[in-house]
Amino acid sequence: MKHTLKYTFSFCLLLSLFLVQAQDVKTKNLDKKEQISATPKQAVKSAETDTIIPPKTDRYGLRVGVDLYKLTRGLYDKNYTGIELVGDYRLTKKYFLAAELGNENKTTADTRLNSSAKGSYLKVGFDYNGYENWLNMENIISVGMRYGVSSFDQEINSYKIYNPNPYFGEMPWKTSGEKFSGLTASWIEVVAGVKVKVINNVFVGFSLRMNTLVTNHKPADFDNLYIPGFNRTYNGTFGAGINYTVTYFVPIYKKKVVAKNSKKKEEEK
User: 255 or 97: which carries more pLDDT confidence?
Assistant: First the structure.
């Protein structure tokens, strides 16, 4: 009887140890499964966190500068001095309010007339940027229009009378010095140009301009051969010009760019 109780007790002890061991193995297996199932979710969450791209923003502000073409032209053209200040302000994603303010003094020498024009001008209009920039780019390829006005004086320096029968040679030049003050002109200008950001907030630009006169106050018996801001007149109403600018952008505020897909989803909602 004593041995029977001993063997029974030993068997129960072994059975309890076996059950405990089996429970530990089961618990460990469950822990491993939970770790395995949790790891991909954490990895996906981590990957999503790591691949989040910050929203794109457009900067809005004022860009001011100077026309280097007019500023340096006097270095190689003794008959010209002038300066032009340029600026634009971003109204929307594509449209810019633009203006130019300048002063010119130009002497025009023709075969029979030498005259000087001196005055100031203002041009106001808009530019439309047709270039789709990549992230953090602010370059511009634009077309636009301006309305320009000019107030100036003309002076006839010298002239030569036309002789239809130059048997005895050409007539000599005559000094005049006659002046005409308070002259005005206005015109419409079509502009095409580019602006490229070279370093932070600094832009270099180039534009081509085609002009047509709207009004032109002329002196009696004399034509305005050169109008400050309009440039040389051809056939009375047509003009053309170029400028080469360096400008600095002053940011005022930023606006978040909303993707087209996001806009469609919002409209559908």
Answer: 97
Q: Which two tokens stand for residue 204?
A: 């270099």
Query: What does the pLDDT average to over 235-256?
Result: 91
Task: Determine the average pLDDT of the residues in 109-115.
Answer: 81
Total-model pTM: 0.73
Question: Residues 26-55: pLDDT tens digits?
Answer: 444 544 444 444 444 444 444 444 556 567
